[in-house]
Design brief:
With 101 residues, this protein is mainly alpha-helical. It contains four helices and no strands. Helix content is 67%, strand content 0%.
């Protein structure tokens, strides 16, 4: 239930937010965007005062989505290295979160 609520909030927050129309964004880049936004969402939720169960959920969510975002980022930068438009879309998203693979 909590995950459904969180997902609903994420979707509503970012539904109107886009650097270009979704029809111009390939599915693999959209998957990356979704992963990085979810990664950042989980990372921003962390608070030492949270119950241990919630901390564990946040850690697991961060690990899953941040790792996926990092892998996709590297893969897509290589795949679209000759496509300036797609590289610009990728560069709009900040990969400042340190991720251990």
């Amino acid at each position: 239930m909590k995950k459904s609520i969180i997902l609903g909030i994420i979707i509503s927050l970012f539904s109107g937010y886009s650097f270009t129309s979704e029809s111009e964004i390939p599915l693999d880049i959209q998957e990356y965007i979704d992963s990085i936004e979810t990664c950042q969402h989980f990372s921003n939720e962390w608070d030492n005062s949270l119950p241990e169960e919630r901390k564990k959920e946040i850690e697991e969510g961060s690990a899953e989505y941040c790792k996926k975002a990092k892998i996709l980022h590297n893969k897509l930068k290589n795949k679209y290295k000759d496509d300036i438009h797609k590289i610009k879309i990728l560069d709009e998203y900040d990969m400042s979160i340190q991720i251990e693979l």
